[in-house]
Amino acid sequence: MKCTILHEGKGRMRVHVEKVRMTLHRADVLEAYLNHHDAIVHAAVYERTGDVVITYTGKRTAAIAILAGYKFDVAEYDALVTSADSRRLNREYQDKMFDLVAGRCLRKLFLPAPLDAAYTAFRSIRFLWKGVRCVLSRRLEVEVLDALSIGVSLLRGDFGTAGSVMFLLNLGSLLEEWTRKKSLDDLARSMALNVDKVWVRSQGTEVLVPLTKVRSGDEVVVRSGNMIPLDGTVLEGEAMVNQAALTGEAMPVRKAEGSTLYAGTVVEEGECVFIAKAEGGSNRYDKIVAMIEESEKLKSSTENRALVLADKLVPWCLGATVVTYLLTRNATRAISCLMVDFSCALKLSMPLAVLSAMRECGSYHITVKGGKYLEALSQADTIVFDKTGTLTRATPQVVEVVPFSGCNEREVLQLAACLEEHFPHSMANAVVRAAKERGISHEEMHSEVEYIVAHGIASRVGSERVVIGSHHFVFEDEHCTVPAGEMDKFNDLDPQYSHLYMAASGQLVGVICIADPLRPEAAHVLRQLRKLGISNTVMMTGDSDRTAAAIAKQVGVNQYFAEVLPEDKASFVQKAKAEGHTVVMIGDGINDSPALSAADVGIAISDGAAIAREIADITVAADSLAQLVTLRKISMELMKRIRSNYRFVIGFNGTLIGLGAFGILPPATSALLHNVSTIGISLRSMTNLLSDLDRAELKAMIES
């Protein structure tokens, strides 16, 4: 790309693109391409002028090289665009705004008064009909107030006031619509940038690639707990797929070779390879927009109260108008009262505040499915953590293999890896990886394996039943025993590690000790959450009591529960809710799904099982638990903002009605101030909730 540098400062550059006609699509792709580079902090493309403004880090030559290396109309770059609507949206509303203002000015300057009056009367029909329709349906809404103010002005022959009122109403409506759509688009684009990654099979190997890079015809691998990212046809393998999100049917459906898979469904058991039917980036933005629009129905109780009050205040505005006219016999004063309503500001600013909070969460790689969950999070007093993959990194390592029953370490690890390789899980991956690192081959030596969720694996090797899994599964469910004379060795197992027990024919044959390191920020995050009002912190794990006690002491939770089953987690959550607590559950696995569903707010780790993410109300990135502090602060600030908006709207509009009633403000001025305040509070609702200091503290917490 050939361009000329127009202006340059430290870490910032403005260039003009030469010899290329800058269309909306070209501008979108170029902007997405530049923002895709790590060296570019921010890039903005102005299609009208053909200028590009970039803010960059590092060397100037690197930024120039990125600009110079770009080529227009390369199909490969199209996948980088999360939305083609943003720039088109702004252009559309800019043109509408120009047409509205220019038309008003031209009519005032050049249209004769009789024709202007006739045009005003004609335009009023739409507003009057809306008011009549509300009355006929027995609804007293803001349209009735608008129709009365315009109608009374026309009857008095005051066509100037009627025209001004309609112009301000159109202007306000246009700005409100533009503001809302832009807010929704910003949120959708921020969420779309959190690109999912999938396993694609290529030349006999599996490669982890961004979803947007998947092409029609690619072979995609999905395993137990994974969401199916695209529509496709099963090439090989077999899986039980939960299609509840699509059909509402709770029972999983068997999918084998030739079966059709649908995007958004989840693999409950098994694994398969399917051929993708569509591009990975296709319809992603539209699906996110649909999710956001659906989430708007999940309003907080604070939002709902404000919106209900907005409708209830319309009759009071009408009553104030009637009383003003009866007391003053002055139609102008009465019309001034009609120019003000509470509905517009409340009904626009409240949803915008929530959308903006969701967008701000998205900038921290947090996905929120509705305002009601942010409200519940702001009120929460109890938080329940899963251990593995949540409080820990989910990157476990085998540190020791302890053999029993006369076996050796190699035999134990070989058989364990042979069983565990069928069911990808962080613990299973650690075992398989340890065997590979030690050069231990583990060809198939067993019959069909059975995976028991949250328990373990069972199979047969020859005539022996072999089980591997948790302490509860091996010793309580399967009734296995420790060999005679080896109890001391068993009791000496290091409690700081997680233990994977393996038994054959009812006898313990080995224990694999796995280090699952605690997240370094975990203890600090819990202290911060307590400062923010979370009084009860709980850890629940399927690990042994000894391991759970060691982790609980390190992280500093109020309570811990060991050797729990999925239903135990859900039961605890339900009991706490019944006692009057507002409960947050955080987990990452299939076994956490019942508790995530039962909690007031279910939070899933983004790298966890897809079914957990699907059920959860909020998803956070796996990078750092500090995002929980971010989430709590945003939720609390959002509730403050909603209450602040509510007080301002009631106070300011109440004052305008009073000033109009006393004849201090004419109708046009009342309408102008009302619309300006509505737009002003809406724009304020779109600003970030966290201060610069908060963001700096959170950044430091994440980086530490």
List key phrases describing it.
7-stranded antiparallel beta sheet, 5 domains, Calcium-transporting ATPase, cytoplasmic transduction domain A, 19% strand, 51% helix, 25 helices, 7-stranded mixed beta sheet
Fold and architecture overview:
The protein is of the alpha+beta class and 704 residues long. It has 5 domains: 3-81, Alpha-Beta Plaits (2-Layer Sandwich), CATH 3.30.70; 91-189 and 296-353 and 636-697; 197-283, Calcium-transporting ATPase, cytoplasmic transduction domain A, CATH 2.70.150.10; 366-393 and 518-622, HAD superfamily/HAD-like (Rossmann fold, 3-Layer(aba) Sandwich), CATH 3.40.50.1000; 397-515, Calcium-transporting ATPase, cytoplasmic domain N. The protein contains 25 helices and 24 strands. The strands form 4 sheets. Strands 5, 6, 7, 8, 9, 10 and 11 form a 7-stranded antiparallel sheet that branches. A 7-stranded mixed sheet has the order 12-24-23-22-13-20-21, sandwiched between helices. The two termini are 40 Å apart. The model is unreliable at 281-285 (pLDDT under 50).
